[in-house]
Amino acid sequence: MRGKSEYIIVVIPMSEIKKIVWVDVIASTALYYAIQLPVHSFLIASAGSMAGPLLIRWSLRQRGKQRVRRL
Residue 11: is it exposed, middle or buried by C-beta count within 10 angstroms (0-12/13-18/19+)? Predict the structure, then answer.
C-alpha cells in the first residue's frame, strides 16, 4: 500500500516575477546598448550586460539585508 502523497506548492508573487524580468531583460539590454554605442566593442558590451544584472541583484539583496538589521 502506498502512503499519503505529499505535494509541495511554491507560490511566487507577481512582484518577484516583474523584478526578475526587469533586471534580467530590460536592464541587461539597456546596459548592452549603453556600453556598445560609445565603445563599439561587442565583447565588452556582452560582458557588461552579463555582469550588470548580477550586480543589480546583489545590491538589491544587500539593501534588503540592511532593512532587516535596522529593525
Answer: exposed
